[in-house]
Amino acid sequence: MENYLHINDLGNLQDVVKEAIALKQAPYQFKELGKQKTICLLFFNNSLRTRLSTQKAAMILGLDVMVMNFGSEGWQLEFEDGTVMDQGKSEHIKEAAQVVSQFADIVAIRAFASLVDKEKDEAEIVLKGFEKYASIPVVNMESSVGHPLQALADAITLEEHKTVEKPKVVLSWAPHPKALPHAVANSFVEMMKLQDAEFVITHPKGYELNPEITKNCKIVHDQEKALENANFVYVKNWSNYKDYGKVLHQDKNWIMTQEKLRKAKFMHCLPVRRNVVVEDAVLDSNQSLVIQQASNRTFSAQVVLKRILEKN
Ligand code: CP
User: Fold this and answer.
1) pLDDT at residue 249 in the model
2) Separation between Cα atoms, residue 153 and residue 168, nearest integer Å
3) Which residue's C-alpha comes closest to atom 1 of ligand 1?
4) pLDDT for the residue 1
């Protein structure tokens, strides 16, 4: 694998999940792979899990790690070609990406959606800018449209906790006071399309995701009906896609409760707002898999970095 930008870059998902679960049993077996190599983690946005799990995975593989909060510490980047840079932006992506490539062997980028300009967000200008101008492999630590490291951790978690061959998995929209990006939901949907599972998406009318991503997916607007006989319920808020970035309403009836969850396992990528997205009783029950999902972020990053190191 050259880069990891999208869940489809992995090849066969089931093989990667198996490899990640095997890595969990003996995580340090490839500690020589990254020796005398460096990964640079560039954060244009905040993080807890992605930062620590990617750093941990890199260290387990013997990589040296450099972390930079580019959003607050780096120069403001220009991405347009031919711009007269006489305003606030000090450095062009062309130089920045090439410079980072002198100091590291892999670069990983987190750059969220603005939720203001749909066209720019869908162009993933930061991630794609690094892909275009860097001479080293690029890893997506959540871009404006996808979070494939999270989706891979979710696939590992599903595999570890499924009790039937073909589980029913429901992605359920939840209320949230702030406008949130679509990246986690998009990558979860794309990952579920690669699974042998009954997959249902439920959200209030008006919260449709990008129809190209949800093409051929079953969408049920009645949450109670969608949740019937679910084995796993993945809860996530996202803002409006059509009226881009808008919060249409915060329908509190969509909060996940123990009563609605019944016997299903609860999943969320975290961070999560308690008693807004999901009630305490669910998060504090043994049906919640959120800590296991966060733990699997290390192994999702480890299998991705391992494959990149093996190729380069
Ligand atoms: N789930 C996730 O990506 O968490 P962070 O935003 O804390 O990295």
Assistant:
1) 83
2) 18
3) 269
4) 83
Q: Say how many Å lie between the CA of residue 260 and the centre of ligand 1.
A: 26
Residues with CB under 6 A from ligand 1: 47-50, 142, 150, 269-271
DSSP string, 5-48: -SGGGGSSHHHHHHHHHHHHHSGGGGTTTTTT-EEEEEESS--S
- What is the Å distance from ligand 1's center to 81 Cα? 32
Tell me the whole-structure pTM to 2 decimals: 0.98
Ranges of the chain whose pLDDT falls below 50: none
